[in-house]
Amino acid sequence: MTRLEATRVIVGLAGDAPIVASLGHPAYDLFAAGDRPGNFYTWGSMGLASSIGLGLALARPDIRVFVLDGDGSLLMNLGSLATIGLLRPANLVLVVMDNEEYATTGGQKTPTAHGADLDAAARAMGVPRTATVRTAAELGDVARPDQEGAAVIIAKVRESAPTAKPPLDGVFIKQRFMSALGNPESATSGTVL
Amino acid sequence: MTTPAWASGVCAGIHAAGSRDVVYVPDNPLSHVLRELDARFRDIRLLLATREEEAFGIAAGLYLGGRLPTVMLQSSGLGNSLNALTSLLLPYEIPVLAVVSMRGDAGEWNAAQVPMGRAVRAIFDAIGVPHATVESADSAGETVRIAGTTAFGTRRMGACLLPRRVTTGSQTGSDPVAPS
After folding, report:
1. Model-level pTM?
2. Quick check: B92 contacting A, CB < 8 Å?
């Protein structure tokens, strides 16, 4: 499966649930698969998509939170797996688009191309649900929203050239996202005097 | 163990600013704050992070979910955090109250702490993060509260610095912050 196909699987099963995307190709593909207010596109802070998703999952235990990370990005913040394993929010689904390369920067191979196993790392850190999937059907099965327990899913994907780029304005992305979640930023609403 | 007045003030200030989530990487003086929060502020959630940059990422997610987060760190951790601040919190206007336990200032004994300790304020100035310094134990609560309410009100992160002369009472040794 290509990363875009994998992204479409997650968008398809997420419903209204928020999706946080790592910068670069994961965010570009999320936009291409379906722009929606519940998408949070990062444009920097490489490595932090899983942390943002973790914080959001803790703040909003009433909703499911999906994160689309990259293998290179997660490798930049591996401690995040330990924190997810420690806190285990039942509503967090971290999907790592593992194409075994730094595709956004020109296709340099990542350690996962040489055997680094992010699924095993997540398991070793105490993440209750982990899986490695290679097809859209497998991904759709393990990411189904009716399952409980913090999940780290390694989706082995083929790189596919992005076809679109999401909105650039971080404040717009944030305000639209927070409104979609039902906790709009207070500064975006007027006040009755 | 008696909680020092400055630490009680920091806790009260965080609470008064409306923050109910504290993401932290531990530090010796901050252990007093952590103990006090755990003992007397049961409505505040304490979240351990493995690294300061991660702490700011978690805090950003908490804010997106409608919370008003605090990050507590040692000044050395500012170096670990800069990409999170400059490419996430600042451009997206995601406010966080940062409570920074200072190293490398007056009373420091470890030379490895001095360069970052000296640079903290200049770094915050360079990236446009307002910062206030707690000048005494008595003023800790108000200083932290105002830093927090200003950050959350204006949607700009703000920092509150806790110097060693306040957290450890240490005035001994050379003063690496003084101009040469």
Report:
1. 0.96
2. yes
